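INFO  loader      accepted 1 record
INFO  loader      residues=156
INFO  predictor   begin
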Amino acid sequence: MPRPRDWYPDTDPKALEVFIDLQRKMTPGEKTACVFQMNEAVRRIRETRERKLYPRASDREIFLRVAAYHLDRDTMLRVYGWYPPVDSNLRGSTEMIAEKRFIVHYTSGETEIVHALQIIQDDDPEGYIFFVDAAGTMKALFYKPIVDRWEESAEA
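INFO  predictor   done
INFO  writer      dumping tokens
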């Protein structure tokens, strides 16, 4: 069985110990709430990406495009009567959207630099901050209580 430090080789061992300790102290209800928060964050990341790809799409179309990532074609057509057409203009697109440089300041006094397009955060003070790239892929994830603040840097 892999050891916890092998699960996240890019994570500082001390930070991983804090994370595991926090997880162990959570009640089953708190753990379930975290799963729902993460699912909602993933949905919002996907929605953000779809809005960037289809800026003139209605809210309903964005909803359907996000749903299509989770449902097969037959289910989409049966339930919603719609399936997103293949947009040949987007297939293999090399369009780049400039990412920004963010500096994350930890409560411990340490800092970390993250290159991302935008930040998504939930309303829960004990929740998470997500940094995502132009494709809607998560670049970094931070637990709010360990972050003092973050700022956009002028340097690229």
